[in-house]
């Protein structure tokens, strides 16, 4: 009754166009406590992908259509994926495989027009193809930040939403880790197991961490990225492998610009995390976070309601569970 009266009031004041806009309003998220608009109505976080060819020139600028808060770069050869967030200061960024500290000469800076890279082979080897993924944060949808470890347990809060997916990036020689609501545990981006007591929970206003080296050494700095599952923008879930080729993973409410898939187990090359940006749209090719080259028959394509996987064991062993995270840019 109140909605009907509100629609009549809007119609009287703004005309049919205003009433139609009100009727079109949605606020679909995985968390009932969040009540903001869906992306596409009032804007949202941004995602862009692209590619460049390495030239081994220092301080090289790579253009993005907005000022990013997160950038991931991956070579099509055997190099680790590299990530940098706007909470990192100085010429440092983080390898997403292995266990190394923040390192110089990779992604050197995030700028108003994109990002700057150094000469390191992981981001600028001569005549090598590199794919990049850039994110821009948006209130109640995606945030970045940092905290100092206390060696015990602590809650990282004040995010304004309940995260559905988070990455934690230690400044020290510890592995980058991730956790989603569906995962219910902490995973590394490569095939090796994360230490226990990592991301212990995704909470109503942030997330909590235990005393693992990857998330909470006393006095150590940690950088984080957190996403809220928002209709039309970001979604996370799982599927069970069936071993079939050209398999469409449906249930995504949009055509993704970027997808991450991680096995539910650890220990061998079949458990390596994989990812695919829209910049690879013309090829059956996926990126890995580990220091290995691109691979075919993994995440093969995007479609209007999800993505397609091949028979590769990193995405489709029968009947293993796989976790996925999908992202699309807001308006």
SSE layout and pairing:
Blueprint: H1 2-14, H2 16-24, E1 46-53, E2 60-63, E3 70-75, E4 82-85, E5 94-95, E6 107-111, E7 114-117, H3 121-124, E8 129-136, E9 142-148, E10 154-156, E11 165-170, E12 177-180, E13 187-188, E14 199-203, E15 206-209, E16 221-227, E17 234-240, E18 247-249, E19 258-263, E20 274-277, E21 287-288, E22 299-303, E23 306-309, E24 321-327
Antiparallel strand pairs: 1-8, 2-7, 3-4, 3-8, 4-5, 6-7, 9-16, 10-15, 11-12, 11-16, 12-13, 14-15, 17-24, 18-23, 19-20, 19-24, 20-21, 22-23
Helix pairs in contact: 1-2
Description:
- This protein has 331 residues and is mostly beta strands.
- Among the domains are: 1-30, no CATH class; 234-327, no CATH class.
- 8% of the residues lie in helices and 35% in strands.
- It has three helices and 24 strands.
- It has helices spanning 2-14, 16-24, 121-124, and strands at residues 46-53, 60-63, 70-75, 82-85, 94-95, 107-111, 114-117, 129-136, 142-148, 154-156, 165-170, 177-180, 187-188, 199-203, 206-209, 221-227, 234-240, 247-249, 258-263, 274-277, 287-288, 299-303, 306-309, 321-327.
- A five-stranded antiparallel beta sheet has the order 1-8-3-4-5. A five-stranded antiparallel beta sheet has the order 9-16-11-12-13, with no helix packed on it.
- Strand 14 (199-203) and strand 15 (206-209) form a beta hairpin.
- Helix 1 runs antiparallel to helix 2.
- The longest helix has 13 residues, at 2-14.
- The two termini are 32 Å apart.
- Residues 1-42 have low confidence and may be disordered.
Please write the string of helix (H) and strand (E) elements: HHEEEEEEEHEEEEEEEEEEEEEEEEE
Backbone CA Rg: 20 Å
Low-confidence segments, given as residue ranges, are: 1-42
| Beta-strand share of residues | 35-45%
Strand order of the largest sheet: 1-8-3-4-5
**What count of helical segments does DSSP give?**
3
Q: What is the approximate shape?
A: globular
Distance between the termini: 32 Å
pLDDT averaged over residues:
90
Q: Which structural class matches the secondary elements?
A: mainly beta
Please tally the β strands and state the result.
Answer: 24
How does the major sheet shape up?
A: 5 strands, antiparallel
Helix content class: under 10%
């Amino acid at each position: 009754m109140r909605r009907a009266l509100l629609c009549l009031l809007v119609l009287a004041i703004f005309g049919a166009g205003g009433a139609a806009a009100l009727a079109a309003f949605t606020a679909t998220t995985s968390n009932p406590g969040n009540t903001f608009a869906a992306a596409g109505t009032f804007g949202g976080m941004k995602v862009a992908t692209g590619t460049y060819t390495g030239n081994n020139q220092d301080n090289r600028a790579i253009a993005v259509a907005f000022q990013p808060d997160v950038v991931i770069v991956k070579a099509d050869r055997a190099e680790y994926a590299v990530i940098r967030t706007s909470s990192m200061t100085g010429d440092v960024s983080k390898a997403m495989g292995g266990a190394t500290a923040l390192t110089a000469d990779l992604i050197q800076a995030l700028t108003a027009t994109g990002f700057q890279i150094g000469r390191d082979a992981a981001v600028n080897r001569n005549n090598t193809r590199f794919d990049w993924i850039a994110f821009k944060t948006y209130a109640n949808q995606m945030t970045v930040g940092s905290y100092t470890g206390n060696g015990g347990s602590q809650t990282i809060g004040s995010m304004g939403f309940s995260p559905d997916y988070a990455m934690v990036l230690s400044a020290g020689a510890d592995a980058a880790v991730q956790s989603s609501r569906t995962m219910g545990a902490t995973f590394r981006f490569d095939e090796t197991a994360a230490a226990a007591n990592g991301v212990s929970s995704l909470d109503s206003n942030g997330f909590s961490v235990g005393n693992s080296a990857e998330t909470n050494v006393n006095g150590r700095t940690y950088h984080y990225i957190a996403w809220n599952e928002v209709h039309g923008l970001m979604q996370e879930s799982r599927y069970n492998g069936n071993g079939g080729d050209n398999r469409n993973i449906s249930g995504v409410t949009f055509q993704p610009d970027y997808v991450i898939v991680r096995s539910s187990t650890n220990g061998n090359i079949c458990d390596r995390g994989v990812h695919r940006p829209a910049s690879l749209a013309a090829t059956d090719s996926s990126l890995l976070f580990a220091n290995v080259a691109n691979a075919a028959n993994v995440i093969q394509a995007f479609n209007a309601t999800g993505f397609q996987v091949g028979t590769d064991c990193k995405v489709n062993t029968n009947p293993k569970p796989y976790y996925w995270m999908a992202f699309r840019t807001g308006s």
